[in-house]
Amino acid sequence: MTDTAPGDGIDFVAQGDGPAVLFVSGSFGTPAAWRGLWKRLPEGHRLVATSILGYGATRETRTSADLGMAHEVRVIAAAAARIAAPIHLVGHSFGGTVALAAALAGVAEIRSIATFEANPLMLIREHGTEALYESTRAMSRAFEAAHAGGERDAAARIIDFWGGAGSFAAMPAVVQDYCRATTAANVLDWRTAFAFEASMADYARLDQPVLLVRGSGANAAMTTITDGLAACLPNVRPAVVEGASHFLITSHPEACASLLADFLAAVGRDGPTAGSPCRAP
Predict the structure, then answer these.
(1) Which CATH number fits domain 13-128+198-270: 2.60.120.560, 3.20.20.70, 3.40.50.1820, 3.40.1110.10?
(2) 190-225 burial code (b ≥16 CB/10 A, e <16)
(3) Phi and psi of 204, rounded to 5°?
(4) Which residues have a Cβ under 8 Å from the Cβ of 244 and sit 6 or more positions away?
(5) CA end-to-end span of the chain, whole Å?
(6) 239: β partners
């Protein structure tokens, strides 16, 4: 079932019945990214998906002069308002960062959070090294300059950064075309992400159970970010999908669905459980 009620300017795709699980796709993504995972989840939840700003049917509200994370958080607030019930929040990539930001902002009653390679970039600096942070920032600036200069496949720079060399070339032509068409939104995503300055101490205040997933092939930036989150989230379940990299929700949907199903079952059965102590400075 697809709900397309007009007026709020967001993607909203829903199916099933039960406790609500809201899925937030990442940059260049739409609710279609979750199809393979959804097919492998057991019944018993209402599955809802939305897109972040500038993708799918979600209207862009940011400008180069006004691109704070509050714009993205409003997407989660709007979807949660339409659901009108407590939610389990699931995000991939920048959608995972937006999910964490929404939890920090307290815009909905969130029972649990699951992230698949969420990328709050400030943690590269806080938990990693200044050199890794600056090299990531330089890569994003080169990508933005390439797009501004008319490079047709500028998006490949980002896709390959996260997924590994050749990731963009391996994508179906229709997906490549969509990435090309939405590259301007991804430029804003990077600016929004670098402007979002939540710290490890901020994440330490999240008391919801968190499933924290990355691929075994994650790059240095993603590994640093995930390790930083694992070090400070007070109720965290880290997991690694073997053989996967950044686009694990589509390349390894069975493994991702199994991790999520087990996590949701544990949250529903046990409620919050003891997790790792925060080791933030």
Answers:
(1) 3.40.50.1820
(2) bbbbbebebbbebbbebebbbbbbbbebbbebbbbb
(3) -65, -20
(4) 215, 216, 217, 251, 252, 255
(5) 47
(6) 213
- At a CB cut-off of 8 Å and minimum separation 6, what does 270 contact? none
What is the four-CA torsion angle of 90, 96, 98, 101, rounded to 10 degrees? 90
Which pLDDT tens digit goes with each residue over 171-192? 999 999 999 999 999 999 999 9
Rounded to whole angstroms, how far apart are CA atoms 260 and 53? 25
**pTM of the complete model beyond 0.85:** yes
What are the beta bridge partners of residue 49? 13, 23
User: In the chain, what are the domain boundaries?
Assistant: 13-128+198-270
The chain-wide mean pLDDT, for the chain, equals 93
Helix (H) or strand (E) holding 90, with range, is strand 87-92
- Amino acid (one-letter) located at 195: A
Question: Which residue, among 269, 208, 268, 205, has the nearest Cα to 237 in the 3D structure?
Answer: 208
